[in-house]
């Protein structure tokens, strides 16, 4: 166990050129919504002790975040309620403010006469713009800590990587330095009179102006405790099947951690470290860590260095060229966005995948590749297909609006991080998938029947 209260300072970077001041420390929690195993919170505690100033955690609620509906806010708020209770028990208050974060954070910093601001890392454009605005406006130092990745995204590579094979050596070289245990979180000494009232999360949820037609999921329990429970179940019962069976949606061989990772309710570094220590075979451990570490951080790299990550124009030039050469090809089926959304295609397998997404907020990873490729095949144009896949994934999936989702759509539809394959109609040189290929990998009828069955299977 690493008993040091210090962290590798390369995990943090400055977002402005100002210095620490004499005043309270604010940790602007955003993407990493957890109390344990959180480098940004650890750094904030370190800074609070260094400045001998109290620590406050801030959470901002923008008027809307990329169209997220009630389903996502409900999952997030239930997790945040758990974080806030842990913080309160440690004497650290959490404040929630509404409005444009770039403006509201700067206003709160001025009001509190803050000494330093710490934020967690996100490669997504809206969040980066908020931080740029706040960093320019506040009079104290503004730090960003990558608490989401094992290797800090800006350190892993200075450019957009071509494929897993190009980023893997970079990440592997840094793995020993960064895939380490977390130090024990020691809260800073807080003033006895520091107000620490509880947050009324139900009231905040009712105040949000969001789409309430998409109801919360009930079969996945949000929060740090449930995320840890899910990780333990995977490591104790399922990881032994991961290498051979992860592409079989009937096999229950995947971790189920994606929603928790997206909302930062569990640390990818913690999960990878626990997997590396498990009793599973080396093959299964390596296969899981490859997805959790290399593939996941490749997606982060894509969004960090490609500002068009959620648009067709982000795709590699060879992929755009081959898709446009085949844009006018005859398509046996064409569906509107509404028909896709309502699972009204001719393909029972695709419809089952879409119903799973709509009804449960999750879709098996292998099915999500098939799902996206068929949207390409049955849309009026490649660009339309890209937009439809992003729209559906962001609206319905609990892990939507995430680098993994954007990179996944770009890989499936546009050859991102892939290579040219044999040319065929509609797809051009993009990798092809079909239902018969799925049938060779798993029992398709069983999968369709499992989606049709009600209620959805419990994860716990």
From TrEMBL:
Database matches in Pfam families: DNA_photolyase
Record's catalysed reaction(s): cyclobutadipyrimidine (in DNA) = 2 pyrimidine residues (in DNA)
EC number: 4.1.99.3
Residue stretches making up the Photolyase/cryptochrome alpha/beta domain: 23-153
Naturally occurring in which organism (per UniProt): Chlorobaculum thiosulfatiphilum (Chlorobium limicola f.sp. thiosulfatophilum)
Alphabetic keyword roster: DNA damage, DNA repair, DNA-binding, FAD, Flavoprotein, Lyase
One GO MF term attached to the UniProt entry: DNA binding
Enzyme category, top tier: lyase
Entry protein name: Deoxyribodipyrimidine photo-lyase
Family statement drawn from the similarity comment of this UniProt entry: Belongs to the DNA photolyase class-2 family.
Record-level GO BP terms: photoreactive repair; UV protection
